[in-house]
Amino acid sequence: MTDPDHSPTIVLNGARHELPGATSALDLIADVTGRELNPDGTPADGGRLGIALAVDGEVIRRGAWSGFALADGHTVDVVTAVQGG
Q1: Which residues span the domain enclosing 22?
Q2: Which residue has the higher pLDDT, 28 or 83?
């Protein structure tokens, strides 16, 4: 039995993170980056995103973000590409 007052909690990059309810991976990435995203995961402004997403150790393709529902207990890693060495 689920508690209707309980917000799902994930581990995001090693820290507990409460979700505002049913959240897709796309919604989370948009929130984390502060950018509006198209349903295919590309930025609405036409720029580059440079983000990779893994849930419970499995990489989720950008095109699948909008259909991937995050759930209580998921471990999520968001990695940003950095240029240079």
Answers
A1: 9-80
A2: 28
